Amino acid sequence: MSSTSPVTKAVIPAAGLGTRFLPATKAQPKEMLPVVDKPAIQYVVEEAVAAGIDDILIITGRSKRSIEDHFDRQFELEYYLEAQGKHENLSNVVEIAELADIHYVRQGEPLGLGHAISVARKHVGDNSFAVLLGDEFMAPGAALLPGMIATHAQYGRSVIALQEVAIEEISRYGCAKPEQVSDNLVRILDIVEKPQPADAPSNLAVMGRYVFTPEIFEKLEGVQPGVGGEIQLTDAIALLLADQAVYGYTFEHGRYDTGTVLAYIKTTIELAMERPDLAPELGPFLDELRSRRALG
Question: In sequence order, what are the beta bridge partners of 102?
Fold first, then answer.
């Protein structure tokens, strides 16, 4: 039986090459691209901390050092802000370094999401843990990750975030075959990676939040590399299903996506429009821009 001790560890895979965002990501990590005035990965870390997680392992790769620098103290900057009386800015930058105990390990080779998570085995040990993908995050106060952790505590099994998508979009995601348990909880009977719409077992797509029992590491070892030598996490979850129940936690709202250029732009605009210091000027600008484009 898997441990049902509190989930206090999280793994954030951030070793990808970010090729969709080239040339912006040639010399900086995709995860450090600003969403309004915070890098995307900071939203992810804050989401984990808000769910009660205080031990975070970020899986990095080459040219990702700026992620470590961002979550570290920068005494020269702090001294300058203090001397200039910029106390709010000072508080913000100090708080970043105090969010959680953040650790780093390099993936070494870009061999897929499953391989990136397997690198965390020594750090996680025999504990259950959360996985938060670095190119999406939930709105502050969202109940998704806390609900997944509570479901894991109740059943002692792995829990995966699921969201309904248009069936024509399902080929972009992992897809679950569900058996309803309660309003927002299903038992996953099967899981497939990026099926064609005609072959999809449902329109429930796997989103980038997971709570895993430590047995997932054994299954990752048993996965055969696919195209490009990558280890697919979906394949490991399918193996886990053969041994123990895996649950899907469904949700509807609150997800922000930064995984593609268009999604990143939409997310940035949406969050900027929620800011009282930006929306009063940004809103009229967007209206004016739309009018100008309509006029040609």
Answer: 56
